[in-house]
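Q: Please design a sequence for this.
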């Protein structure tokens, strides 16, 4: 814990929060623990999005809303977060079940990205938004200032921009199935427009499956 906190540049008052952030569901299930990092991941996702949006809003006042949205998406996507987690060396600190550990879970992008978001939430709960924002920007700012992030095709945002042209239309993503053990999950998602299915997708994470579903919907629309 001390070694990781040095890397984080933050000392926890309540170290239990950091331990939970590092606890994958496979380990929690194996050890019969009441908590894994899934709830923290949920919170961390929102804290991350706000910190990045606030930074981009003030960084370049010439960028239009669409460009800001796409840039934010490239900074908070699974690929970017997994890269940040590797830079931090987060994989070696994760608590994984035996099966997950044996199949390379410590280097799996979806697990690393989720853990990075969980760590953000742990810092936020322990030290407040300013500390969480400082941690987030230590990774995000160099990406933006030294070079724009690699282009990320954000199909969900592209679909949303089309749908919101008609205020009466409503789009939602529905998880229709999942299979496999914790170390090899697979998800199926439908994207629905006013309850009508307009696209289906699958992936190793819910986010990946949602992007695939949105991509199919765009293709069916001829986009």
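A: Design:
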């Amino acid at each position: 814990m001390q070694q990781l906190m040095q890397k984080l540049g933050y000392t926890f008052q309540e170290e239990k929060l950091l331990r939970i952030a590092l606890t994958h569901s496979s380990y929690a299930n194996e050890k019969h623990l009441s908590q894994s990092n899934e709830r923290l991941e949920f919170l961390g996702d929102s804290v991350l999005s706000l910190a990045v949006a606030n930074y981009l809003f003030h960084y370049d006042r010439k960028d239009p809303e669409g460009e800001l949205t796409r840039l934010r998406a490239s900074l908070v996507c699974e690929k970017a977060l997994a890269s940040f987690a590797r830079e931090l060396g987060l994989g070696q600190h994760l608590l994984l079940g035996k099966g997950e550990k044996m199949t390379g879970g410590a280097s799996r992008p979806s697990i690393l990205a989720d853990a990075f978001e969980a760590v953000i939430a742990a810092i936020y709960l322990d030290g407040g938004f300013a500390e969480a924002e400082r941690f987030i920007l230590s990774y995000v700012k160099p990406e933006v200032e030294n070079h724009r992030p690699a282009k990320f095709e954000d199909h969900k945002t592209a679909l949303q921009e089309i749908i919101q042209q008609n205020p009466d239309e409503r789009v939602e993503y529905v998880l229709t199935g999942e299979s496999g053990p914790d170390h090899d999950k697979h998800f199926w998602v439908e994207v629905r427009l006013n309850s009508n299915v307009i696209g289906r997708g699958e992936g190793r994470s819910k986010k990946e499956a949602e992007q695939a579903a949105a991509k199919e919907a765009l293709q069916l629309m001829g986009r």
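Q: Thanks. Anything notable?
A: DSSP finds eleven helices and three strands in the chain. Residues 38-59 form the longest helix (22 residues).
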